[in-house]
Amino acid sequence: MKLIIVKENEANQRLDKFLAKYMDKAPKNFFYKMLRKKNITLNKRKADGSERLQTGDEISLFLSEETIESFTSPRGHTAVKRNSFLPKPEILYEDAHILLFNKPVGLLSQKARPEDVSLVEFLRDYLLDSGQITTEELRSFRPGICSRLDRNTSGLVVAGKTLAGLQAMNELIRAHRLCKRYRCIAAGTIPGSGRAEGWLVKDDQANQVRIYQKEQKGSQYICMLYTPLEQLSIDGMVCTYLEIQLITGRSHQIRAHFASMGYPLLGDPKYGDPCKNQYVRRQFGLTHQLLHAFCLEFPKIQGGLEPLSNQKFTAPLPELFAKILDAGRRDLRPL
What we know:
This protein is an alpha+beta fold and 335 residues long. It contains nine helices and 15 strands.
């Protein structure tokens, strides 16, 4: 028999949802069969799986260790160590509930395929190695990230260490209360600040999006504010260094929207200008878009995330981004 004491990170969810996480390879009907036969009980009583768990509840599994293990995916933390060549994220802030990472270019935010290693694996490895979570706890609670960046977009990503942290951050993001600002270099001269709106349609097969000025079937509304910071000239190639504040956050939104406006991001292999991209690849070795999640501003917050109330965090530009920016300042004209 295995006894599980429900902890804070596991509370406030249905028993059947908890069991599906704890033994994630088991079919759903297995749990209901075991509940009916009282091979799984809650607080020493028969349960049907719909019960809402509370901190301190006792879940008894009258199952062999072999059965439990056969229905459980490995929770070890060897994936990151096997891939030591991967770029490493930097922790910019940490408290009891969240982490702020500065994600480097080349690292996925979340897995796209089972064999991938992403920022999520770095997060879980860090929490395991620092003793903030155990392999046993990972059976039923999985720390994760609350915001995503494309593989080759760098910058600030919020991660939740606790259930309370994940829930609170996801609510801030859902309610558009977290101010997210990006820095990028776009081809062409952007004459002044503005508000860009449109409608985005995603092509899942091509992993691309299209931008329209009018609503389309299946489209999503998009909006951002932008402010040019400097005019740049990279050996005569005119570009603009600018800051963007996202109002909505859609897949590839910044990259595709600026390309549709005639100002593709420098280096962007999917939406960029091939000739300009070829030039900066030869000159600087740039193979990705110059887009960086530069700043997060938190609103006034109460509760567990109160230490973040009205705080502002910034992530330094990646080395290659800063190098290209400096090269373009030879003909700098302040705006």
